[in-house]
Amino acid sequence: MRPTHVQVDLGAIRHNITQIRRRLKPSTNLTAVVKANAYGHGAIPVSRAALAAGADSLAVALPEEGVQLRDAGFTVPILVLGLTLPEQASLLVEYDLTATVCTEDGLKALAHAARRTAKRARVMVKADTGMGRIGLTPDKLLPFLTTAAAMPEIELRGLFTHLATADAADKSYARRQLAAFTAILDQAAAAGISLPYISAANSATVIDIADGHFNTVRPGIAIYGLPPSPEMHQSLDLRPAMAFKTRIVYIKEVPAGFAVSYGCTYITPQATYLATLPVGYADGYSRDLSNKASVLIGGKRRPVVGRICMDQTIVDLGPVCDAAVGDEAVLFGRQGDAEITVTELAELAGTINYELVCGISGRVPRLYVNDGDER
To answer: Residues annotated in the binding site, as ranges?
Structure first.
């Protein structure tokens, strides 16, 4: 196995689910979001850990992600968060996946697929209360819900929306979205439409907006132990589940004035030792971290110097070489008492922690441990 790998702590996943559960009413349905290969952590092992710790169901982005979980033996409800296209209807019905609908074409295609297989198509209707992606605006929702509820081939499982600013310090826009969503629910109830599952809560809403939980929440980033944003009013005792590690493969002594990597963007200010790490942007170690990030070697921060290459990264060990070929280098995670967080790297790269963990490529092996269980 190559020395570069990601370590995923399934004990931390279970711990984080437990912490989220403690924030909820006992009757609240917890849907673990495991889209994008569980944010890079591995959908199948993470799903098993999340369900074992108290999650009730799963959510993915694409039908194919749901099929992967069904093929792995998962029988719990699986919500496909992305919009159902008519050509995907047969796959969704065949694998008993809950489809997200907000178009008549999608609804009709699901009904047609259900008739062919003597099944009922499970659907969640998406309400756009201010996110602007997919979903029906409030003025169009009641007629659509009425149509869906009247179709014998359709099992209307509920209604959900997404809050655009739940992770911001100012919750006023999120509050307006919740008010619009609640008004829709009141209209549906007055019309006698049954909506068993009602959801508006992502991780930030779970943590910060208790009255946005309704009866179903769908946390994502918090499951993986990462904060939704630095602006949260409250916090949970979350444990990062992922660490990104490699090993030194080469060390050389160079003089002052030595140019490093593409474009010669770093010139050594003194004689020093350079260490080469077999990891690069093709692995998900962002090129935007060039000349900005540090890695942990021997419990100390060592600066990344020069441009990060596709497959290799160079760090400056300093004028005294206190490391050796084969020593561990931690790109993010803990080493002894020292830690580099994903959020720290994301700020350096001008992005969010979500993108960095999702961006760890498939060629990086995932190793699974259970160190984070509560004892």
So the answer is: 133, 310
